[in-house]
Amino acid sequence: xxxxxxxxxxxxxxxxxxxxxxxxxxxxxxxxxxxxxxxxxxxxxxxxxxxxxxxxxxxxxxxxxxxxxxxxxxxxxxxxxxxxxxxxxxxxxxxxxxxxxxxxxxxxxxxxxxxxxxxxxxxxxxxxxxxxxxxxxxxxxxxxxxxxxxxxxxxxxxxxxxxxxxxxxxxxxxxxxxxxxxxxxxxxxxxxxxxxxxxxxxxxxxxxxxxxxxxxxxxxxxxxxxxxxxxxxxxxxxxxxxxxxxxxxxxxxxxxxxxxxxxxxxxxxxxxxxxxxxxxxxxxxxxxxxxxxxxxxxxxxxxxxxxxxxxxxxxxxxxxxxxxxxxxxxxxxxxxxxxxxxxxxxxxxxxxxxxxxxxxxxxxxxxxxxxxxxxxxxxxxxxxxxxxxxxxxxxxxxxxxxxxxxxxxxxxxxxxxxxxxxxxxxxxxxxxxxxxxxxxxxx
Length: 443
What we know:
Layout: E1 15-20, E2 23-28, E3 34-37, H1 39-47, H2 54-65, H3 69-86, E4 108-110, H4 135-147, E5 153-156, H5 166-172, E6 179-183, H6 190-197, E7 201-206, H7 212-219, H8 223-237, E8 241-248, H9 256-265, E9 270-275, H10 291-302, E10 309-312, H11 319-322, E11 335-336, E12 342-343, H12 346-349, H13 365-368, H14 370-379, H15 382-385, H16 387-390, H17 395-398, H18 403-410, H19 420-432
Parallel strand pairs: 4-5, 4-11, 5-6, 6-7, 7-8, 8-9, 9-10
Antiparallel strand pairs: 1-2, 2-3, 11-12
Helix pairs in contact: 2-3, 6-8, 10-19
């Protein structure tokens, strides 16, 4: 569209504007559409009321800045053409509601509640049924997941390698679905590593420090040396994919660069940093980062430029949230605990004293049962039902955050979760930060 003095932009009063250092993030309040603009663009949008033509806006800006009309006119017309081309103000809105029957994505199996470590910040301890998941139950459930379209399965605990039959049950699903085993890495033997290399299995090793001095208070005496030894055995045996997962809190937040450097030395391709979830038990050892601490963590992670893929995982922030689709669909990545009970996701499985608000239905019913659809309806649209979220410019990305975490903390879906302020800082940083750290792995 070619703009002239008689062209007018639609009413821009229904947009949110976040400004920082001469850059401005513009978002519609009723849909997940946005753009970033400079000072002139922000001024044009602020003056656009749906009735004022561009010629009027040009004259207003000339009086404000004392610039020549020809110079301002060219810039304003060009900007208006770009804005109209984006479709930001089209009447057709983007529907981010999940499909009524989404496919299964990534079921997670807690194959045991037992663990050889006693990490003091553990969110699982005390909320899983005791014992191991029977091998035949595991095999049957994985095959059912495959028939429901699952892409791969995660296997966790407790610590999966406390099971003597772990390699056997992994072998029973080889060729059915790829698997990722989440482990502390301390129990892996050379023979096990060799067997794992023959299976369609990826291994994620939890490590909370790049030295025994940092790791020991969080994971226990000898845990660093044992986990590092496990990583080396996996590498030497040729396991197809090895990653490191780091639970970040105040006590190890300064070790980010050291952990990435360790991953480089050990030929690990991926390091995932996940801020510790604030504990529901006030006596917990966990020392969660505040919003400013998580912002600093993000900058440190995404300022890295090297062979290791380093990423930050936080509910409601990341590529999924930026996609414009609903990032959280309860039931799509169900969680199966040792007694075979199925929960809509890991977060709901780890809710303490889970009550009837969280449906426990069969694996197949996690996709399309009336109970799960009702749960999705309770979780969707949270950003509009939570008063503070409803006026937040970032609501179409985080969509109100994690419903499971909000439920765990407040026993209601219509509440913010504890990472709300951190996400605001992260999104503002992502769109408006001018330094050289870029958007890293979010691109």
